[in-house]
Amino acid sequence: MKYTIFPTEVTNPLAVWQQFEGSERVYWHDTQVNRVIVAAGRVKRITEAELPEYPWAWYSQSFFDTMNDSTWQDMGNELVVFTYYYVKEEGKAYWVTADSIAPVITETVVPHIKHTYEMVTTGDYPAWERLFEGIQKSIQSGEVKKVVASRKVAFHSDRPFQVTSIIHNLVEQNQGAFIFAYAKGEAVFLGASPEVLVRKRGQDFMSYALAGTLKKDDIQDGGERLLTDAKNLREHQIVIDRIRQTMLTLCDKVDVQDTHIMELPNLYHLRTLLYGHDTNDSILTMAKALHPTPAMGGEPREKALQVLKTYEPYERGLYASPVGWVCGNTPLFREAGDGLLIVGIRSALIHGQDLYAYAGCGVVAESDCEAEYTETATKLQTILKAL
Ligand SMILES: C=C(O[C@@H]1C=C(C(=O)O)C=C[C@H]1O)C(=O)O
């Protein structure tokens, strides 16, 4: 397929997103490098072999192999290519499009809405206790060391949630995170994730071990306490070890960097970057090997997933799953096969006036049920503050 590059004066990516209302589309803002991609107009689902014929493909993969909940609208488990890609980086904007002319965008003022909504989930804490106890039982029996428990909390607004306004707030409020929104049919899955599952540049892979959390409070120590907290360090080490071992199945050598604090607006995480060199495998092969890491699923993986299937009372869909871009023939920016996949956390699924927000946390033997519940409430703030 032939794509043409047109420089454009359009400066507001949200105006692009807004104008393609009703179309299958993606909004992506990597605030670490300040690169925005807005894609719209599905061409088709492609295979990896077809990648060089397209500039970028959007990849998403459901958390579990199967997805039965229809609210997810067949989202995920495919590489999708689009007709229009609007790209903005280093102050320059371009269209990369399969059309012979660039779309005309009206740069209207992006609505800034304060939603009025109520929480409609009931019986949430007792359900959390059952999940927590189920996990603790599996830990005590020696089946698992760690399981990432999560909650799905439903909210209803007095009018449809205004996605453009929410994305705008997510970008403003989450410097350092990856802001994403994927609209298909009546559904929009969006969030501000701080976590890279895998990045590929040339033949180099990078992954984040991100686990261990501290809510910001009055003690101004930049989260340094986390670096000496035994429970959080143990949770974190489980993630490092598993990512390292998985990367070693595809890479000759894996370099584990020092653990440091990642600061987010309302909390701190322990983060360790892992690098590997691999001449043969694609980013999707690496992503499939890594997902879900013990930061999203648990350890050992299959047993932890079984525990989640037994005790977690809802379908995860794309929550905590790989989402992101794989580059095809994009001479302007990157090598074919490069890409960046994050995990879809600090996220929500929106259907008109209904919003389902997701948040999870790692549970190990030393975990306290109420403290972990509070941690999920802190993580839910990423979405709630943007409403
Ligand atoms: C699962 C989530 O977060 C993950 C769990 C963390 C933890 O248990 O400390 C930290 C970061 C994430 O890897 C979530 O936000 O939903």
Automatic annotation (TrEMBL):
<comment type="similarity">
    <text>Belongs to the isochorismate synthase family.</text>
</comment>
<dbReference type="GO" id="GO:0008909">
    <property type="term" value="F:isochorismate synthase activity"/>
</dbReference>
<protein>
    <recommendedName>
        <fullName>isochorismate synthase</fullName>
        <ecNumber>5.4.4.2</ecNumber>
    </recommendedName>
</protein>
<feature type="domain" description="Chorismate-utilising enzyme C-terminal">
    <location>
        <begin position="127"/>
        <end position="379"/>
    </location>
</feature>
<dbReference type="InterPro" id="IPR004561">
    <property type="entry name" value="IsoChor_synthase"/>
</dbReference>
<dbReference type="InterPro" id="IPR015890">
    <property type="entry name" value="Chorismate_C"/>
</dbReference>
<dbReference type="Pfam" id="PF00425">
    <property type="entry name" value="Chorismate_bind"/>
</dbReference>
<dbReference type="InterPro" id="IPR005801">
    <property type="entry name" value="ADC_synthase"/>
</dbReference>
<keyword id="KW-0413">Isomerase</keyword>
